[in-house]
Amino acid sequence: MPELPEVEVVRRGLVDHVVGRRIEHLELRGERVARRHQPGPADLAAQVAGRQVAAAHRRGKYLWLVLTADEEEDLALLIHLGMSGQLLVSPADAAEEKHLRASFTFADAGRDLRFVDQRTFGGLALSPLPNAGGDERASVPTAIAHIAADPFDPCFDAAATVRRFQASASAVKRVMLDQRVVSGIGNIYADEALWRARIHGERPSASLSRASLAGLLRHTKDVMSAALAQGGTSFDALYVNVNGTSGYFERSLEAYGRAGRPCSRCGTPIRRVSFMNRSSYFCPRCQRASRPRS
DNA sequence: AATCGACCCTGCTCGC
DNA sequence: TGCGAGCAGGGTCGAT
Known about the structure:
Blueprint: H1 4-17, E1 23-28, H2 41-48, E2 52-59, E3 62-68, E4 75-80, E5 85-90, E6 100-106, E7 112-117, E8 123-128, H3 158-166, H4 172-176, H5 187-197, H6 210-231, E9 271-275, E10 278-282
Antiparallel strand pairs: 1-6, 2-3, 3-4, 4-8, 5-7, 6-7, 9-10
The protein binds a DNA duplex (16 and 16 nucleotides) through helix 5.
């Protein structure tokens, strides 16, 4: 479920509730939650135990905890929430969630951190952190080196990203969702940004002007900023993330999930079409697939 | 090299 | 009431 704004809310929750604590034990349920960690779940749990959580970072939809230990290299514990992952901060005696996949206890005997994930597309993995001691903000775990900067990253290069869009033979929405080009955008915010920019998602990316693409990227950042501002309001101290949804932002959506309801700009009913095995929502009047013929 | 569909899961809703 | 189809905001992999 979560896209960049929701993952950022989770990251902030980790900063508040987990950073600075020492992990005592990690219990993993099943193989699948650690499937991206090649040595397997037992190795992951063993390496994590006893380490201090020094920081919580994010790139796009990926989160990682920087784990430190005396005389050892820093290590990144990567967390991806997939479609349905949640991180919960729970009292140790709280009832076990139905889809609990991982549970951390801490040396301070405070509240536990739990990873709950119904659809199991999420998971945990360990990854080295390159150039430790260098610029920490630029240090991204090697396992996600292929993930591009997101629009909030100081490293994000809008002009270079526009060039990538212009060089692609694919539909512009497909490029927006390609995490190697720009990260953090998912189906909801892609549709919302396209609506704001009045661009049809199936238009060839390369057919759009540099100015249109730059505008689209600005809209993408703007809509995610607005969602983040509202997602923060739904924060509950008991949870690192409340429910994986966009908090109160759902009521602000202009296109996504609004099939048949009037476009707030022109009144034309929003259309839903199938695209990339998903759904796309758009205004057929404001967002033309091709220039109307005269 | 770039592109695109298949696939990985569980649970809910809808129509028959 | 039961049952299958379709759908859900993720990423990766293999075939072209």
